[in-house]
Structures are given as C-alpha cells and as structure tokens.
Amino acid sequence: MSEFWLISAPGDKENVQALERMNTVTSKSNLSYNTKFTIPDFKVGTLDSLVGLSDELGKLDTFAESLIRRMAQSVVEVMEDSKGKAQEHLLANGVDLTSFVTHFEWDMAKYPAKQPLVSVVDTIAKQLAQIEMDLKSRTAAYNTLKTNLENLEKKSMGNLFTRTLSDIVSKEDFVLDSEYLITLLVIVPKSNYSQWQKTYESLSDMVVPRSTKLITEDKEGGLFTVTLFRKVIEDFKTKAKENKFTVREFYYDEKEIKREREEMARLLSDKKQQYGPLLRWLKVNFSEAFIAWIHVKALRVFVESVLRYGLPVNFQAVLLQPLKKSSTKRLREVLNSVFRHLDEVAATSILDASVEIPGLQLNNQDYFPYVYFHIDLSLLD
Fold first, then answer.
1. What is the pTM of this model?
2. Which of 99, 100, 186, 255 could form a disulfide with 92 if both were Cys (CB 3.0 to 4.6 A apart)?
3. Does the pLDDT value for residue 88 go beyond 90?
4. Do the Cβ atoms of 221 and 159 come closer than 8 Å?
5. What is the Cα–Cα distance from 75 to 89, expressed in whole angstroms?
6. What is the pLDDT of residue 353?
7. pLDDT digit string (tens) for 290-347?
C-alpha cells in the first residue's frame, strides 16, 4: 500500500514499552511495517508561537500535497503517449517515494535545525511558493503551445466539409491568375460519383468540359475539382446544391498554405524543444517539493507532540505502513488500545464501535490519543 501513518507518543518508559507492544502485535498480525521516524531537536520557542505554527503548518501541509499532485499530473500530461513511464520521473532524491519516506532523514544543510522553528517553516513555505509560481508559468507556456498545435492538427482530421485542404491540394489542381476562369472544389457523395461525371458540365453554362478531377476521398465522399467562368459561380453553386453536390469554399492561396505549413512545423519544433527541459524541471522540482512536504510532516509531528505532551521535549515518532487495506481498521484498534492511557475518554469512545461521535469514527478520525498524521501516496500512482 502507498499509505503511511505517522504517529508519536511520549518518550517515557511506559510509552516506550507501549511502542514495543505495538511493534510486536502489528508484526505478528502482519498489520503494518513500522520504522522509527527521526526528528531533530528544534528550538521550541514559546507555546503561543507553537500554536500559531500548528495552524500555519496545517495549511502548508495541504498546499504542499496539492502542489506535488499537480506536478505529478503535469508529468503525466507532458509525457502523453508515454504516460505509463511517468512513475520513473516521480522520485525523491533519486529513489522511489516509499523508500524516501521509510528512510527519511532530516536535511540539516537545507533546513538547519538550529534555526528558530518559524524560520525553518518560512524557508520551506518560500521554496514551495517559488516552485508553484514556476510550475504555473512553465506549464502555461507549454500548454498554450500544445493547444495551438492540437487546434492545427484537428483541422487536418475532420471530414471533407470541415478539415483544412492545404495539405491535400496542390498548385497544379487549380487554374490560377486567370481573369475569367476559376477552379472550384466540390464534395460529391460516393453514391453520386457517376451522376457527377454525367452532369457537372451541364449544371451551368460556361463549365469547362473534362475539367473535373478526383483529388481525395474519405468514407462519405470525394473532393473533385471543376473549372468554370467566374461569372457563373453563383449559378453553378445553386445547381450543384440541388443535385446534392457541395461546393467547398476554398480559394488557393499559396502564401497562406505556406504560412500554415510553416506554422505547423514551427509549433512541432517548439514543442519538441520545450519537452525535454520541462520534463527535467518537473522531475527535479517534484523531488524538491516532495522532500519539503515530508519535512513539513516531520515539523507537524514535532509541534503537535510538544503541544500535546508538554515540555521538556521527549517523544518518539514512528512511521507505520499498513500492509493491507482490509486490515487498517484492525491496526487502528491496536493503536488505540495500546495508547488508550494517553486519553482514556477519547480512546474508549473510539474503540466502542456502537458509539457514533463526530470526528471519532474509525475511518475518519480527527482526534486520537496519540499524535497522528496521514501520508497518502496512492494518488501519485
């Protein structure tokens, strides 16, 4: 499972024994894989400042999680046809996310623990804000390019009534630069090919004999040329419509066709040039954002543990990875039983399945006898 429970309990003898019991029970029952989660000793400051940081860290946690999910989605979108390989780019410090979380070590160089807690939090917040700003600008530029390219490609994918014809017709298909003559393009249903060949010359006066040619066709019909005098265009269109032939409004403009082709080539080239750098940026900064997020989780455990268990700082944090979705309820019961002494009233209410108290449901608890945070990587799969 890509789910982790990050908990902490006081570090006194009674709770160390409780942690040992928890490890024994969860191991024997195959409920979870547990590892020690080491958090450095920070400068605590005042309890008032910790209360403020608790609220700020909660918001930063939500923001960081949202950011890495958006970045993961961006990787999938950028990779397009290679979406199945997106996970190869969603790493943290070069390792898979589960390995990083289960072997977490605080990065002292990036976030010095000797600094005041508020400074550490501010450093992470600014880092994540900068990544989000860059993400927006980079993906916006790439998506605009991608959308423009898709719009051009769509023009060449419709039927003969709607698609662009610049990649189908050629200069040789038309009578050009004539004061009197003009070549029209006519869409003829496949079932009416024979009728077209028999009647097109007589649909109007001044149609050039034997001037029709099949340019291309799709499932419904074909695109034919016909040359006639300019003065009878409207009459020809009317007669053609009466016979279920559709004159496609198209006039050969070599400069416009060249411009379209060059625009397509430019967009394809620009997209190819931006693809690699954008994917590399996403890979590097996804790692940075994910690492920052787990550091935020560690900070939340520290702050909440001090607020819950008091001073001096003495608690033990443990990371649990539930092994099966079906056993999470049982794992929760084991934890609440082992640590019920931390808050008898809350633990009893949680363990009693017949008591329904808002915020204390087994599957959606907002309060536990111990400090608890959830890390869900499943949405990144």
1. 0.79
2. 100
3. no
4. no
5. 8
6. 44
7. 999 999 999 999 999 999 999 899 999 999 999 988 889 999 989 988 998 887 655 5
Given phi > 0 = left and psi -120 to 50 = alpha, else beta, which region is 139?
Answer: alpha
162-193 pLDDT tens trace: 888 888 899 999 998 899 999 999 999 999 99
HSE of 149, CA atoms in CB hemisphere, 13 A: 15
Indicate the residue type of 137. Answer: S
Which of 357-363's residues contact partners 24+ apart within 8 Å by CB, and which partners? Answer: 362/329, 362/332, 362/333, 363/329
* Model confidence pLDDT, tens digit, residues 263-293: 888 988 888 899 999 999 999 999 999 999 9
- Give the integer Cα–Cα distance in Å for 362 and 33: 20
Q: Are strands 32-36 and 315-322 parallel, antiparallel or unpaired?
A: antiparallel
Is the pLDDT score of 364 beyond 60?
no
CA neighbours closer than 13 Å in the CB half-sphere of residue 197: 8
Task: Provide the residue count of the chain.
Answer: 381
Distance between CA 245 and CA 228 in Å, rounded?
Answer: 16
* Range 107-115 contact pairs with CB under 8 angstroms and sequence separation of 24 or more: 107/291, 107/295, 108/40, 111/295, 113/40, 113/41, 113/42, 114/43, 115/43
